[in-house]
Amino acid sequence: MWWHQHNLCFRHPVEEDYSGDLEEKVATIAETDESAESEGVIDSHKRREILSRRPSYRKILNELSSDVPGVPKIEEEKSEEEGTPPNIATMAVPTSIYQTSTGQYIAIAQGGTIQISNPGSDGVQGLQALTMTNSGAPPPGATIVQYAAQSADGTQQFFVPGSQVVVQDEETELAPSHMAAATGDMPTYQIRAPTTALPQGVVMAASPGSLHSPQQLAEEATRKRELRLMKNREAAKECRRRKKEYVKCLESRVAVLEVQNKKLIEELETLKDICSPKTD
DNA sequence: CGCACTGAACGTCAACTAGC
DNA sequence: GCTAGTTGACGTTCAGTGCG
């Protein structure tokens, strides 16, 4: 209700960076008869227990938004706030959009076209298109990019069908940012055969049965760990993004409810004056 | 200019939840 | 029960800012 009526979730300067305080503030305003003593009573362990068992930000916001039509949901992929480059949307209907660890976007269009864009650059300037010439058209609905990773030497690789790898050129990758800006800030990419060393943490569907020696098992364990760390790294980024969005929404709600509260108090005062006129 | 301080962003770990 | 995803906590890094 409040969500739709007051058009929340707009950008709002962050004044408090602690969502816990903010949630408490919202709850206090929304439910004026709620006791405020709980914060001081619970110890840190219990507090952590409570916090850790709270549903995810995505779930909270989506549940809130499901009550009210027109409320933006937190999507699986990038939200509009994160700024999916508009140039990608204008291209030939990408089936998948991925973001690299450096913030660049990889859009996979139907027919095997790979579009790479920089979120910082505007317009079509930051967009490149790589067309797969020898991999053939992917089957409908197939996931084209199998993985995005950063190799040990710092270059980025994206695995595409046909056992190929899209690799960012070392020259542009290693070039200082001011040099990249001077040259139009356009990193270049190559499609290579995967004969080059795989980045750490990427497992290319090796069957467990093919591992024999302890050394291979150790390497497999290391790869699994690297993969897990890499996934968790990305998950943490996404979680922080959702949390920021969630906090912004709460701040917006606080602002709206404060205004609402003020109006109601004024209305109450007016009604009081009407109902009990002074008799002097 | 050098230093201390601060806030934001990040990476990692651990605990937990949800889906299978 | 297992696995992947989520998120709080903690430590680290880095850029910005104020002060002597």
From TrEMBL:
Compartments, as annotated in UniProt: Nucleus
PANTHER family found in the cross-reference section: CAMP-RESPONSIVE ELEMENT MODULATOR, CYCLIC AMP RESPONSE ELEMENT-BINDING PROTEIN B
Keyword DNA-binding among record annotations: yes
Name under which the protein is recorded: cAMP-responsive element modulator
A Pfam family hit: pKID
Keywords: Activator, Coiled coil, DNA-binding, Nucleus, Phosphoprotein, Repressor, Transcription, Transcription regulation
Stored InterPro entries: bZIP, bZIP_sf, CREB1-like_pKID, Leuzip_CREB
Keyword Phosphoprotein: yes
Coiled coil: 247-274
CDD domains, A to Z: bZIP_CREB1 (cd14690)
The KID domain, residue ranges: 24-83
Domain BZIP: 222-273
GO CC annotations, alphabetized: ATF4-CREB1 transcription factor complex
